[in-house]
Amino acid sequence: MPFAAEKGGVRLAVRLTPRASRNGLDGIVQGADGRPMLQLRLSAPPVEGAANKALIGYLAEALGLRKTSISIRSGETARFKILFIEGDGPALIAKLKDWVALTGG
């Protein structure tokens, strides 16, 4: 899975496609290194952090979380990003699994 519990929350691997025609989750894909990641599309452009802000907002809304509980650990200027979601790890993983299953990922 592209997410794992860590102390204080969950680490989430994401492959982001900015400037898409729609916002959405396209499921789980394999990276070039074989690691799984969530494939997300956002209509926001990758300019001045707009796509990163949109990513955090999209995830917060989809998972019913506060934006401040989601942060980008690495990949701020790349398509592949590692995010950290603060909170109860097992509960967050359950939310992520439900969300991926609901969207057909």
Walk me through what this model shows.
By secondary structure, the chain is of the alpha+beta class. The chain has a single domain, classed as YggU-like (Conserved Hypothetical Protein Mth637, Chain: A, 2-Layer Sandwich). The chain is about 25% helix and about 35% strand. A hairpin with a 5-residue loop joins strand 5 and strand 6. It is globular and about 35 Å long. The N and C termini lie close together (about 10 Å).
Summarize the structure.
The chain has helices at 50-63, 89-102, and strands at 3-6, 9-17, 24-30, 36-41, 70-74, 80-86. By secondary structure, the protein is an alpha+beta fold. The longest helix is centred in the middle third of the chain and has 14 residues, at 50-63.
Task: Note the main attributes of this structure.
single chain, 105 residues, alpha+beta, Conserved Hypothetical Protein Mth637, Chain: A, 6-stranded mixed beta sheet, 2 helices, globular, UPF0235 protein ACELLULO517_02895, DUF167
